[in-house]
Design brief:
Elements lengths: L1 E5 L3 H16 L16 E5 L4 H9 L1 E4 L5 E4 L2 E3 L10 E4 L6 H5 L11 E4 L6 H9 L7 E7 L2 E6 L2 E6 L3 E4 L7 H12 L4 E3 L3 H22 L4 H5 L1 H20 L6 H14 L6 H7 L10 H11 L4 H21 L13
Parallel strand pairs: 1-2, 1-6, 2-5, 3-10, 6-7, 7-8, 11-12
Antiparallel strand pairs: 3-4, 8-11, 9-10
Length: 343
């Protein structure tokens, strides 16, 4: 299996490192059972030119593991779209707002048999991928996924794995098939625990609810994730945010349990207590956040189904106001110009 990671940010770099390590250790031929893990023949980390990608190309990725040990992982990198030709699977890990811009140049080098898997935050990524990759009535397979893995870039060419977790993948309408099961097995064998699920929308909305509750609150308060569980007032707002998400999910006929979501918020806040959410990091670095694809998507879907979402709407207004101020102060730009599309 030839796998390309699109997006050389923290999560893309972590995925590329895990798969590259597995490729170095895997046999040259795939197992006979097509539902089991496939041999990894190539791993490519594709992204825009950056100091981080250049450092990885020159010296490998310096990875700090959860236990504090460090290692250097050699990873093949590219910024030329033609380099993705021949890929069986593309795993997309760019910022949600940069999806179309990131994958459109790759369209001539993919086929209808290519699998494109989104592991991005928020809603709307799969639709953006389908639209961007449609050519002459043909487009590759687009699958949905969510992950609770976490990582941060500490310097160009350096990465810290900050949270272990599970990844779920599935198809928009149909149940899992052998191909999805094989990809899940391949990722799991590479140290990226993954399950193939029939109810991927439930996983997506549960992750969305957690992000809606934690990301904007930590970003606005300037605090690490643990504070959401420690501060009763912030915790109460997180509950209101999640409750609105669940109400909208139910209107869309997606089965999400509020008690399960609230438990997940508490678990994430505790497990990633010292982490700073990606939305907080974006604001600190004067970069555009994913608020539109997270809380903004809930507001839009709520309006579509007649479900009030006032607390999420407030988060969108506040984060967008911060974006306008910080981005304007840092580097005025033309409307629609991308800042840092990789996560």
């Amino acid at each position: 299996m030839r796998i390309t990671i699109v997006g050389a940010g923290a999560m893309g770099s972590l995925a590329a490192a895990r798969l590259s390590q597995a490729m170095s250790a895997s046999p040259s031929s795939a197992p006979a059972d097509s539902a089991s893990a496939a041999a990894i023949e190539r791993v490519l980390l594709y992204g825009r030119p950056s100091d981080h990608l250049a450092a990885i190309a020159a010296n490998g990725l310096h990875l700090t593991e959860l236990d504090g040990t460090t290692r250097t992982v050699a990873i093949e990198t590219a910024s030329d779209p033609a380099a993705v030709g021949g890929s069986d699977v593309l795993i997309v890990l760019v910022k949600s707002w940069a999806t179309a811009e990131a994958v459109a140049p790759l369209r001539p080098y993919l086929t209808r048999d290519t699998v494109v898997l989104t592991l991005q935050n928020g809603l709307g990524n799969a639709s953006a991928l389908r639209n961007a990759l449609l050519a002459q009535g043909i487009r590759p397979h687009v699958w949905l996924g969510v992950t609770t893995q976490a990582a941060i870039r500490t310097a160009p060419g350096e990465l810290a794995h900050t949270g272990a977790g599970i990844t779920a993948i599935g198809r928009r309408r149909d149940s899992t098939n052998t191909s999805i099961q094989q990809l899940a097995a391949t990722l799991t064998a590479a140290g990226w625990q993954t399950v193939a699920v029939d109810d991927i929308h439930r996983w997506v909305w549960r992750k969305l609810a957690v992000n809606c509750a934690i990301n904007p609150l930590t970003a606005l308060a300037g605090v690490p994730n643990a504070v959401i569980g420690d501060d009763p007032k912030l915790g109460a707002i997180a509950t209101q945010l999640a409750s609105e998400v669940v109400a909208v999910a139910h209107a869309r006929k997606v089965r999400v349990d509020l008690a399960n979501v609230l438990a997940a918020i508490e678990d994430v806040a505790r497990a990633t207590g010292t982490n700073r959410s990606s939305m907080l990091v974006d604001l600190e670095h004067n970069q555009r956040t994913e608020i539109d694809a997270i809380n903004g998507a809930v507001v839009a879907e709520g309006a579509r189904y007649g479900i009030p979402t006032p607390v999420n709407e407030m988060m969108v207004a506040l984060i967008q106001a911060r974006e306008r101020q910080t981005i304007h102060d840092a580097a005025p730009r033309e409307p629609g110009t991308a800042l840092t599309p990789e996560d």
